Amino acid sequence: MDLDMILASSCRRKILKVLSEIGRANVMELVRRVNSTYSQVNPNLQILREEGIIFDERFGRMRTIRLNRENPKTARLLQALKILEMLKTDRKPAKPA
After folding, report:
1. pTM of this structure
2. What pLDDT digit, counting tens, does each position of 17-76 carry?
């Protein structure tokens, strides 16, 4: 899947942002942090896993997700997210003095 297709989903962008900030999270923590539902987050995690961008780790019944920082695609995605975030803040109108 192309990087632009991965970034096309706001849910995937939020997941990537959260994981880049906190390192690892269990699935329900991701659901809360991206302000979504399990049924929306889980398929997006599956796509990211298939692309090799995230790892699943199981600790008993808990599934923990973390970024695969060794994948060059992950680094490019995080860089693209940072650029998108900068562009978003540049577009905000200045507050009147």
Report:
1. 0.84
2. 999 999 999 999 999 999 999 999 999 999 999 999 999 998 888 889 999 999 999 999
Amino acid at residue number 64: T
Query: Which residues form the domain of 79?
Result: 3-83
Does residue 34 sit within a domain? Answer: yes
Residue 27 phi, psi dihedral angles, 5° rounding: -60, -45
Q: What Cα–Cα distance (Å) separates residue 48 from each residue in 2, 90, 96?
A: 12, 28, 41
Determine contact, residues 82/47, Cβ cutoff 8 Å: no
Count of the separate structural domains present in the chain: 1
Nearest one of 66, 55, 86 to 23, comparing CA atoms: 66
| The one-letter amino acid at 94 | A
Helices 10-22 and 38-50 pack at an angle, to 10 degrees, of: 80
